[in-house]
Design a protein that fits this description.
Blueprint lengths: L1 E6 L3 H12 L4 E7 L2 H11 L3 E5 L4 H12 L2 E2 L12 E2 L2 E6 L4 H10 L3 E4 L4 H12 L4 E2 L1 H12 L18 H11 L4 H8 L3 H15 L4 H10 L8
Parallel strand pairs: 1-2, 1-3, 3-6, 6-7, 7-8
Antiparallel strand pairs: 4-5
Length: 233
Amino acid sequence: MVSVLVVNDQSLQRLALRMLLTAEPGLTVAGEATDGDGAIRASAALRPDVVLMDSHLSGAAGIETIRHLTRPARRTTRTPGFPAEEAYAPRVLVLTAADQEAEAWAALRAGAGGFLLDDADPAELTAAIRVVAAGDAVITPGLTRALIDAVRQQHTVRPLPRTSGLGALTGREHDVLVAVASGWSNAEIAQWLSIAPTTVKTHVSNVLAKIGARARVQAVTFAYESGLIRPAA
């Protein structure tokens, strides 16, 4: 069962999302919040798998909320069912408008696990929640194009020191990171490298661990910021 914390400042939208998600097999609504502070408090108390955040809560405060939510926290007291000092951080899925690619890029860097356009249909939303809960990334094709264009317009992307994680990658892991940053699926990478999809999954997990990323979408931003992938002119 995937638990979801709904974060939206509109009561009717929160109600609609709750009704939609609770009617979906395998999903449950852990709680609701109306702003970033409330989301942080509710996440700490309820420990949802996914925080579904509306783009109206973006901007500087929203980015800081995402950064706080996705930073693993540890319990300092013993609670039945949870060992002491257990690390926890939810996945964050943001519902966003098509013209907010700049904020989407900043949110990805802060740790968001995916973006879905706010006019997505119910099936797309529930599928995206499951994907993000599993640790994968969700970015709609249209927003992906906009993000690439936004990166091309940036002039501050500079290679990071090798200590940032690139130097720890093997040659095969380097190839896998390039493919992931190019938007390839595990199946496509497996075909390209002539290896099994399960082997690709292992390589991806190793890459994420070495560069300090929690999901593929953070690996993409790392690849650009480290200079491994350079936006076309």
